[in-house]
Amino acid sequence: PDRAEIWVNATEAARWPTRRRFTVGHELGHLRLHQHHEATVWCRTGCVEEAAARGAALPVEEAEANQFAAALLMPARLVREHYRRDGDFSALCRRFGASGSAMGKRLHQVV
Q1: Rounded distance, CA 75 to CA 47, Å?
Q2: What is the pLDDT of residues 55-64, one digit of tens each?
Q3: Where does residue 69 rank: exposed (0-12), middle (13-18), buried (19+ CB within 10 A)?
Q4: Residue pair 109/76 in contact by the 8 Å Cβ criterion
Q5: Which of 75, 103, 71 is nearest to 89 (CA)?
């Protein structure tokens, strides 16, 4: 973090291109939003999966980074515009390079 670098798992990135885009956006969110935190923010799969398994909310920093990535990759105005015009969920996912999960969450936020 002190070198302002973002590291992404290469195997995961190759396997899921849409997830790769969201992950990079998420990490940019940490870099921008949490750069002045005293403690370094480390994204670990276990942290997110553990919260999901308990039915708990994500840690605040993770939720903020997710929101940043969603806004960056799926701007609210454009998502609303294309959704109202086409109403085709699969087309929205392709247009914005998003997974169904990410697009579904974004639609619930902005429509």
Answers
A1: 27
A2: 778 888 889 9
A3: buried
A4: yes
A5: 103
